[in-house]
Amino acid sequence: MPPQRKGASESRGGKREQLVSAACGLFHQQGVAATTLADIADRSGVPLGNVYYYFKSRDDIVAAVVGARSREIQDLGALLEKRHRSPKARLKALVSMVADQREAITAYGCPYGTLCADLVSPHDDSSRSLAAGLMQSLVAWTEQQFQEMGRRDARALALELVALYQGGAVVASALGDPDVLAQQARRMQRWLDSIEA
Amino acid sequence: MPPQRKGASESRGGKREQLVSAACGLFHQQGVAATTLADIADRSGVPLGNVYYYFKSRDDIVAAVVGARSREIQDLGALLEKRHRSPKARLKALVSMVADQREAITAYGCPYGTLCADLVSPHDDSSRSLAAGLMQSLVAWTEQQFQEMGRRDARALALELVALYQGGAVVASALGDPDVLAQQARRMQRWLDSIEA
DNA sequence: GTCTATAAAACGATAGAC
DNA sequence: GTCTATCGTTTTATAGAC
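^ inputs. structure came back:
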């Protein structure tokens, strides 16, 4: 077994986490299918053959990356809940963060959206459910904010907000134009303002 | 040179077109990076080695597919212009077609959007400009419709409509739920209705 | 636990017979 | 023009020394 459980010697070098972190970045920049184990090993400073000490297959790394991205969403949600009292303020802060990161998103697309798209392509069932779970993480947090606003149509509103973001990310990255995403973020802010609590 | 120019013996079997057609479908279903030349050759009924009689490299096939998808957009635009007099009716008909094809779009994503995303991933310049050109084809036709409606903000409106579509496609395919796309199409119809000519 | 070496298969691309 | 056979490389995955 790798570095025991998540106890003491977990981060002795934390090579497993380094591998996941490197894979996260490479999957975002190059796509899942185009990223090789050698790429991940190189960036992690781990010898190629040693990767199989931490993961039993390539698909295992993909699953670990999806888990990491999902936790990333949870953490971001928790941060926003700590920083802002009202759910609407949280959603507006989220959109504001998107606008701030428009350069990175334009360069490589939304980290969550492109990962989901890469996981949908193989018509493998287990891969598709990973994509569904990841997207659901994003929608679920958004939905909860609308629920706390007292909206019965929270799910529909959440799907709309996430779709607005994903659409902006796809078009902006395809055109290579961050202004598209900035404009879309402004639209999202206005749309949020128009939602009655 | 392959089958001469685009003259008489162009479609003697039309194997080049069969290859492009097969690649179109496979790129949509599996993604560009995950599709091998053997996949394309198999589906085309062309021997693997023979692919290089029609294309000098794999990248050449990718470029040909982008060209075919771009022509597809032109043809669809021309069809809508023939069928509907007013630009608004054309846009509404386009959204209606999206709703009708929601099953296929949910299964594999938007053929144009996912192709663009696959072309953005390699930080290769020529690949990125292919993505930009393809997305621009989609936006340009939409923009022209808004222009014919007399709108000065035609570009912004076009970007918004395309982003609404792409966002719906990403979320629907990630969740594997066609209803998300159907709902999004209804929103797009209402949004179009609210646009003053 | 960590690393090197390498097996086994898949892939892009080429050569050359017909 | 069409097809088969194959080269050289890359990629996933394993074996085994330390």
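Chain A has ten helices and no strands. The mean pLDDT of chain A is 95.
thumbs up if we can close this ticket
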